[in-house]
Amino acid sequence: MKLDVKNVSKTYKGHVALQPFSLVVDAGTCTGLIGPNGAGKSTLMRLMTGMEEPDTGEILLNDKPISSMKKEIGYLPQYPAFYEWMTASEHLAFMGRLSGMAPSVLEHDIRTLLNKVGLAKRSNDRIATFSGGMKQRLGIAQALLHKPSLVIMDEPVSALDPVGRREVLSILDEIKNHTTLLISTHILSDAEEICQRFVIMTEGEKIEDAMIQDLLDRYSRQIIRLDAASMERGWVDHVAGLPFVESVNVTGRSMNIQLKDLVRDKGKLLQDALDHSVDIHKFEVGRDSLEEIFIRMVTKS
């Protein structure tokens, strides 16, 4: 089902959380809603699920008001809540009954879903014994239980350790083949793995909406990537002040350098590093990553 967000806005006690915002999400696609903390992503998702009403505008699902289509929406909040004294099967059965699902259908679907999210062997264990990753997988099962046409997930992996993140991302990669999926995150690499399209937000405003390759084609610049045994602060400041250097970004022992004329000036940069006895491990021409593009766009805005 197509989701159509038309010029919605939201203000809380004088604070503008969401400026007039429009978005169309086509059926069968996976879209990443990307932005730093406080960008308005969670506010927009609460409006999309019908949990809150926008101050202006409207939201339609399959050309019908979102308030009348809630049964078609599956939602995973950033921090899903559970009755932790229940087992995984009991929790899903309880939520299914609240949704009006028949007991005979529930029994089969719960087994199928718990198997899908890798919790089949823990179905009769109390939720209190689950790790953070396991609870998030149970939350995904709950969001899918009533077979929604649209699944909305708010920061589904941001609070997880690397193992939990990998488990959940694998599940999301499989889910996107069967439903319309909208995921919010401030971790670009996560969305990059599973989404075809990025909608970038900051300060309650949409600043970009494009397919991944389009973003790379339009915003990625050629840069010099330099890795060294150590990155002395004095030399970094020196490089930033060179007349042929546009910008410098340092992460650990790696430096990304934007030159005013890469073809003309890359040799000068290399010679300068050698003159300063920099122990170079790698010196190569590369391009901005999606994360670097995102940081530049958000910082500029």
From TrEMBL:
Signal peptide: none annotated. GO terms for molecular function: ATP binding; ATP hydrolysis activity. Residues 3-228 form the ABC transporter domain. The keyword Glycoprotein does not apply. It comes from the Bacteria. SMART domains: AAA. Keywords: ATP-binding, Nucleotide-binding, Transport. It holds the Pfam family DrrA1-3_C. PANTHER family: ABC TRANSPORTER RELATED, ABC TRANSPORTER, ATP-BINDING PROTEIN. Belongs to the ABC transporter superfamily. This is ABC transporter ATP-binding protein. It comes from Rossellomorea marisflavi. The lineage of its organism: Bacteria, Bacillati, Bacillota, Bacilli, Bacillales.
